[in-house]
Amino acid sequence: MIQQLLNKHKSIKLLLFITIITQIGFLLYYMNNKAALFVDEAYTYSMANSSYGTLFPCSNLKFIQEIGNYNCKWLDGSFFRDYIAVSKNHRFNYSCIDEMHLFDSHPPFHCYLLHTICSLFPESFSMWYAFSLNLILFIGTQLLLFNISRRIFNSEKYALLICFIYGFSSATIDCFIYIRMYSLSTFFVLLLLNVYLICLDNKQSLFRFISIVIIVLLGGLTHYHFLVFAFFLSLIFVVVSLIEKKNNAFFTVAFSAVIGVLLFFLRFPGVLFQFENTPRAAEALDMGKITSSSINGISFFFQEFYNSNPLLGNYVSILFVAMFFVIFCILFAKKYITNISHSVFYITAIPTILFFIFISFSVGFYSFGIQGERFFFIVYPLIVVTLIVFLAKIKFFIYCLALISLISSFVMVDFNFKDYEGFNSELEKLFDGNNIVLYCEQPEILEVLSVKLLRCNKVMIVPYATQSWFPKEYSKDEKTYLVFVNHNKKLNLPFKLVKESKYYDLRYSVYDLVN
Question: For a Cys staple, 419 with which of 20, 239, 308, 505, CB 3.0–4.6 Å?
């Protein structure tokens, strides 16, 4: 009997290993086919590696203050290489990251890690540097999710099934091929929850206390939304621990979480600037903005409810179901759901649902398109857990969900940016080793182009689409192209039109200035 249990245990671990390896294969496939960086992804590299500022026009850093010095002057490709990659004399230099993040929407910890990896490969750029971090975080996330699910269901079989559904879903692939801080935030959410669940045994432990302080500190330094989840998680945990008279667990979590938040504010005083000037901090901390956004969100919700069947909608139907889940969890879950650890389930599900509702209203979910899904990445594994709990008695539905998850990984992945593919493949040769005169109607596109401009011989940025701004002197022996990106004007220029194409995100025209 004991031998059978040991063999079963080893079989589950082997299946978990095979599942994670297969899912890593999916991530590698989509990352290898990722056509380009989205503007926020390129921005992540520049915020981590640039020593002289950012190309974003909203920044007040040195680069933008002196942008006039760069307009209409030839810049070497190395200028953009040092912007997007780590220069040899800037390796492991973290001071600029703090300064630059005053003008970002997020705290800097993810960029610390990315800068560390890029410092190992100075003066070179690759999307795989950031993805290598995401790959490690994916493995850690799956192991934490397995452990949390096992605690809820008291079953490794269910835990394995949840890891299967989560890891193969399109939202998970989106999260881990998207080069931003969301994968790191997801990891910290599960790590914090895992430590909280360990605290339920009500034993005093200095290690657990210090662990919670560090996780709250680093999670807050990764994303403000993590602090929102940590607040709801801590609140529900202390309520449950008080009801169950687990005083040691109560004091461990209550005091360590508060200390972690205080250390966050001490470590990153730039939060005060971001609170006034950036959206993510205000969404998590500004009660005035939260109240205003919630009123707008509720108004939108009931307007959609009145105009159409909410069960046929998108965000509206999800929010409607989430609200129902909150009531169901509190009033009826204990009677309906059996064979699970109810305390663990409440501590897992209720903060997840409250976070979903809070963020939906505070970020104005109704104003975002498909990319709005990134705001819910960090709790998506816990949404899967909550859903499986309610489907636990109907295994057919669980298997259907697993199949749907697997299918979605083939047809619904969004963050590989296929819209950029034509732009990259058609212009790659034009950029490589040649001179480029560049006009962008949307200046932030410079972030996306910077990963290509580093391959040019020389680059000139022109601020207006008029011929008087184009260079009057350039070598006739060097290939020189005039590139217009995201322009809406009909151009009548005395140059040879080489290429002209339109894509959803990037429209361009290319002229040969030499021939």
Answer: 505
Specify the pTM.
0.85
The whole-angstrom separation of Cα 383 and Cα 66 is: 47
Give the span between the Cα atoms of 288 and 285, in whole angstroms. 9
> Pick from 148, 259, 260, 145: which is nearest to 200 by CA?
148
Under the banding of pLDDT at 50, 70 and 90, the label for residue 77 is: confident
CA distances, 500 to each of 222, 419, 490, 491 (Å):
41, 15, 11, 11
Name the band, by pLDDT with cuts 50, 70 and 90, for residue 368: low
Name 415's Cβ contacts closer than 8 Å, sequence gap at least 6.
Answer: 34, 38, 173, 174, 177, 178
Residue 498, helix vs strand vs coil: strand
Query: DSSP 3-state assignment of 337?
Result: coil
Mean pLDDT for 265-279 is 76
- Please, what sign has the CA dihedral across residues 441, 442, 448, 453? positive
Cα angle: 480, vertex 485, 486; to 5 degrees: 165
Taking only the tens place, the pLDDT of each residue in 462-478 is 766 565 666 666 666 67
Q: Which of 221-235, 280-294, 328-342 has the highest mean pLDDT?
A: 221-235
User: Does residue 101 or residue 316 have the better pLDDT?
Assistant: 101
Mean pLDDT, the chain, as a whole number?
A: 77
Question: Are 177 and 34 spatial neighbours (Cβ–Cβ below 8 Å)?
Answer: yes
Beta bridge partners of 438: 461, 483
Give SS3 for 458: strand
Which residues are CB-contacts of 269 (< 8 A; sequence separation ≥ 6)? Answer: none
3-state secondary structure 80-132: HHHHHCCCHHHCCCCHHHHHHHHHCCCCCHHHHHHHHHHHCCCCCCCHHHHHH
pLDDT given at position 35: 72
Helix (H, G, I), strand (E, B) or coil at 276: helix
Give the percent of the chain with pLDDT over 90.
28
Going by C-alpha positions, the residue among 65, 61, 43 that lies closest to residue 53 is 61
More confident residue, 336 or 265: 265
| Burial (Cβ within 10 Å: 0-12, 13-18, ≥19) of residue 6 | exposed
d(CA 453, CA 462): 14
